[in-house]
Amino acid sequence: MAAFVIDGKVIAAKVRADVAADVARLKEQHGFVPGLAVVLVGEDPASKVYVRNKAQQTVECGMQSFEFKLAEDTPEEEVLELVRKLNADPAVNGILVQMPLPKHMDSNKVLELIDPLKDVDGFHPMNVGRLSIGERALAPCTPVGSVILARSFKDDLSGLNAVVVGRSNIVGKPMAQLLLRENCTVTIAHSRTKDLPDVVREADLVVAAIGKPEFVKGGWIKPGAIVIDVGINRVLKEDGKGKIVGDVEYAAAAQVAGAITPVPGGVGPMTIACLLKNTVEAALMQRGLMRA
Length: 292
Ligand SMILES: Nc1nc(=O)c2c([nH]1)NC[C@@H]1CN(c3ccc(C(=O)N[C@@H](CCC(=O)O)C(=O)O)cc3)C=[N+]21
Known about the structure:
Rossmann fold; 2 domains; 10 helices; EC 1.5.1.5; amino-acid biosynthesis
C-alpha cells in the first residue's frame, strides 16, 4: 500500500496560525510585539530566497522582522559587532545568523556570541547542552519541525526504533536528542556506519539528513516505517532543468513506508514555522512570561 504523505505545508500553516495567535495575545495583554533579526552575509542565491521567505512569514505572523545583509567580504569583527548590538536591543527577541558564513569567518565564534536567550536556531552551546540534559532550551528548528511531522502521523513515538542518518550539529545530533525525549530508541548512523542498509531496515522511524540526493533507497525501508526526509538537494533533470529532491529515493520509499514527507513541501516549510515558534518562545522567556 502506498504511504501516507505527510503534508509539511499544511502542518506548517497550523504552526504559524498558533504563532500568530500567541503574538496577538502578547500584543493585547502586554502591549508588546516580538522581533526577529536575520543576518545574511554574502550573496548565496538559495540563502537569499530563504531569508526573504522568513522575513515575509515573520511579518504575516504579526511580528517585527529586521534584516541585515552584509557583503561577502565583510570583516568578521563587523559581524561580531552587529551581534553585540542585536543582543543589547530589546526590540530583538530572536537572532539568526544564516549559515554557512564566508570562509574567512569563525562560525562558532559568531554563534557563541549570540545571547543564548535570543538563539532561535538553538545552535549556542548553552542551548545544545540544556537540550541534552532535558532543561528548557531553544532547540534547532529543523529537528523540532521533524518531530512535529512524525507526531502528526503517530502521536506517541515512545518505544520506536529511530534511526537518524547524519550526525551534523544542526540536524542529526539535535534530532537524536529530541527523539530520545520522545522515548524512542535512537541510533545515529553516518558515513562510516557498517551495513547501513541493514541498520535502516530495523527502523520504525527514519530521519534522513545526509545531504546527498536520494541516498536512502526504497529497499532499505521497513514496511510501515515513518520516513522524515530532511534533505534539500538541487539536481538536474534529464531535460536539463533543475529540481529539488530529498535524501530519500522518494518514489520507491513511498511504496513501502507507512508515512513519508515529500521534498519540497515536507520538512522545509516546518523549519521556518518552527523558527517563528522559537521566536515567540524566546520573547516569552526574556519577559518572564514563560508557559508552564
Ligand atoms: N542559521 C541558519 N538556520 C537555518 O535554519 C538555515 C541556515 N542557517 N542556512 C540554510 C538552511 C536551509 N534552510 C531552509 C529552510 C526552509 C526551506 C524551505 O522552506 N524549503 C521549501 C521550498 C524549497 C524550494 O523550493 O527551494 C520546501 O522544502 O518545500 C529550505 C531551506 C534553513 N537553513
